[in-house]
Amino acid sequence: MRSLLNCIFSAGLLLTCYAEPSWIGLDREKNQAQVMPQGQWIWQNEDHLKVVNKTVTFQKNFELKEEYTSANLLIAADDKFVLNVNGQKVFEHNKWSDLVPIDIMKYLAPGNNIIQIDVTNGSLSPSGLILDLIIKRKNKEDLIIYTDNTWVVKEDGHPWAPVKSIGKYGVAPWGRELEYLDNKLDLPPASYLRKEFETSKEVKKASFTGTALGLFTVEINGKQVHDEYFNPGWTDYHKRVYTRTYDVTELIRDRKKSAIGIVLVDGWYAGFVGYHGKRDLYGKNPRFYGYLDIEYYDGTKHRVESDLSWKAAKGPTFEADFQKGEAYDARLEMPGWNQVNFDDSLWQKVDVTESINAKLLPHPSAPVRAFREMKPTKVTNPKKGIYVFHMESNFAGFARLKVKAPRGTKIVLNFGEMLKEDGTILTENLRGARSQDTYICKGDGIEIWQPSFTYHGFQYVSVTGYPGEPPIDAITGVEVTTDLQLTGTFETSNEQINQLYQNIIQTQRANFIDIPTDCPQRDERLGWTGDAQAYVRTACYNNDVKLFFSKWLQDLRDAQLDSGCFPSVAPSISGSGGNECGGPGWADAGIICPWTIYEVYNDKQVLTDSYASMTKFMDYRIKSMKNFLPPENFHAYGDWLNINADTPKDLIYITYTAGNAQIMTKVAELLEKVQDVIKYKNFYENLKKSFNEHYVEEDGKIKGHTQTAYVLALKYDLVDGERYQQAVAHLVERIEARNVHLSTGFVGTKDLMNVLSKIGRNDLACRLLFNDTYPSWLLPVKNGATSIWERWNGWTPEHGFNSMEMNSFSHYSYGSVGQWMFENIGGIQMGSPGYEHVIIKPIITEYLSWAKVSYQSVNGMISVEWRKNDKQLLLAVKVPTNATIYIPGELEPRRLPAGEYSFRSKIK
Predict the structure, then answer these.
(1) How far is CA 417 from CA 161, 394, 527, 646, 810, in A?
(2) What is the DSSP string of 370-389?
(3) Angle (nearest 5°) at CA 769 between 760 and 884
(4) Closest by Cα among 192, 190, 189, 231 to 208
(5) How does pLDDT run across 704-722, given as a tens digit for each residue?
């Protein structure tokens, strides 16, 4: 029995009670009929249950007279099979429980065609074959070939003979337990849901609230309700699901009858997530939940909710997945399905889940929207029938297709970040992500289509199937990202540095899609904790990310392990890897990110919300250490992707734990947790003592003797006095030993430049920043990069591409240098949380003649512009609060109130 949600009273009279909406959808079994084999299991004879050590050959001849656009085969055989088409070996497989989809279009030819399948059974067990072949023909019905009694079979030395039919798909002994081998066929189509309703009086106000286990779009009376993508966002759907609410008054006002249309797809809930090729991580069948509240001018109210009265059907969107892509058959469009008086008599009843256990809450952050449209710069034709559209930058989003073609024309779009030497797109680095969109034309003039439920990381679009040579406007790029306010600007006299900054913000946009992901292109796109903590401070300069990170920190708290450790990724993706303890440099995001958000926005709420999880994590770390040393065994990624300079993982463990203790001391002070202040102070001091006893040699060498080892020791103030000076000298030597190049990975790069400034070596920091040889930030820029790469050597002129398995060209971690650029080239530094006190301290480097940098803090705009003219410096500053301004060439800083100032000084 459904519970009552609430009752509305007016003038003491009960007007109406609202029932709790149901979670509705169309179960996958009903929504996937088109991929279930329609053929029959066949065998050589009736004795198919006990076959051993035998190979038989099945054959089917058929004629192809008309032009065809595709030929897809679905096959299962017990135990194993070899498929041959027209004498060519096409595929072999040795697992009886797999349904294998195979594209055989290129093996067919006009006229007579022959399919032969050798089926072998190697043990005393059942044997059989089942197959569907669907050939789509132009201007004619599909040619469908099934396994049935028209096939023939033979053994070596025997003539061809008719087969024996065993039964339809689902018959014993195989039943319906077969699994699709190729994930692309395990893509159920979108569910189309609809409901008509009446408004009996004049409407004063109407609002729609909706969410889903999956993704949904909503239209009322044929018009879109919003311009957002990927609602309701990604969470651990077992724990919380977010809603969004929209004013829809104008869409139903002055109407007696209206219709709601919902399109529902898998999304993160049931689609492919992570790098293990798995789907259904949270559930199998997507569900929609929503209601439309109507208030009439007479004060009465009415609610239309998701319930059993809704209808459901399949429609033109027959594939929709983040990793695999989206497919749309315009021939299957249902004009008017989202409007009144549509004939839905053949639609099904919805499937219903009455309630779920997760919390239902308003979405706390901004939605994903289109950021900009991008025209191709050129089109190339590297191979016959393949056209590659070049975009101006590597971004996250999709392509809008424009085409005029005959009905049934199938156009396929593939996406890549880089080009191979032959001019085709690089797809190997996508791994299991197919990243392919498909459009089938209805043949009705100019057709324009773009996906609604997927995105890709790409700079190049490969188009096949387009009739003739496509014009340059056949493709338009649409970039999407979470709609965050821009807060930073950065410009200098050096175009390579300017491009580096553009690459940083471009990569941030590409990876800030509801959560902070590692990459937007391959089969991953996860909320990696190590990447997030390394980059969060730079993110704050570029955009207002307070609510964005506050939402993700809730995901992180939801994902916290029972032990207290934070995992490698959030939201939790149990069953797809990444849910083990994140280890040093990753799990610490649970401490570093809340503190960073507090400091930048001066809002204690994020600390209050996170404090219990932060203390639980610190208790885990404290308990894990014996005599203030790291445990013998623990999970760790180390200084990920360093340049032949592995930093000991236990050193990263102890230094990051010490840094956490520093932060927790300050957090406890702010929240007036007196005993915790003492606890974390003492813990830090004991860690520092242990570090010096076990990790630092007499000459000041630190275990590992890498750049990162010294950076971490100096970052977290773990060495003092003479040892501090020794660590400084060793760090400088380690950099100079690389001919003034870095060797740091994800962990060390985050703090390398800041530490160099801390020890008074901005000169060395500038040399590192302005290097354009491997490894450096400007090597990719020099070679045309428009985004930040995962690897320092993702591509080099000498060696080409690095690893194909893990080589993202849109990874923001190394973009953490953006913080240093704002704070040193721009000189905009935080004097106190929220920039209530501002420090302006620009460095004037020989590499630049001017710089212009601004940051919109929570207390107002901060801007710095400096320009060198002969030996004179012109400095213009705007500060919204009290500021300490260091003017190059002057010995003492000036302390000034809020205002705009101009200075002149002499410089060397």
Answers:
(1) 53, 6, 21, 29, 8
(2) EEEEE--SEEEEEETTEEEE
(3) 45
(4) 231
(5) 999 999 999 999 999 999 9
CA nearest to 691, candidates 668, 710, 667: 710
Measured between alpha carbons, how far is 586 from 596 in angstroms, rounded to an integer? 15
Pairing of strands 13-19, 4-10: antiparallel
For residue 298, the number of C-alpha atoms closer than 13 Å in the C-beta half-sphere is 7
Under a CB-based contact definition with an 8 Å cutoff, are residues 522 and 396 in contact? no
In the beta sheet, which residues pair with residue 262?
193, 218
The model carries a pTM of 0.84
CB 395 within 8 A of CB 506: yes
Q: Give dist(CA 374, CA 437) in Å, integer.
A: 18
Length of the chain: 908
Task: Answer yes or no: 177 catalytic.
Answer: no
φ, ψ of residue 116 to 5 degrees: the values are: -125, 135
pLDDT in tens, 274-302: 988 888 999 999 999 999 999 999 999 99
CA distance 564 to 621: 8
- The residue with tokens 């993702």 is 794
d(CA 790, CA 802): 11
Q: Which residue among 305, 479, 790, 823 is the active-site one?
A: 790
Cβ–Cβ under 8 Å, residues 214 and 286 = yes
Among 429, 390, 304, CA closest to 805: 429
pLDDT at residue 11 greater than cutoff 60: no
Among 760, 750, 769, 748, smallest CA distance to 724 is for 760
Pairing label, strands 325-329, 436-440: parallel
Residue 193 tokens read as 């849901």
- 8 A C-beta contact, residue 484 and residue 514: no
Looking at residue 473, the DSSP 8-state letter turns out to be G
Considering 524, 599, 823, 865, which one is annotated as catalytic?
524
Which residues lie across from 78 on neighbouring strands?
128
Q: Mapping DSSP to helix (H, G, I), strand (E, B) and coil, where does residue 25 land?
A: strand
Is 790 labeled as catalytic in the residue annotation?
A: yes
Q: What whole-number distance in Å separates Cα of residue 519 and Cα of residue 455?
A: 12
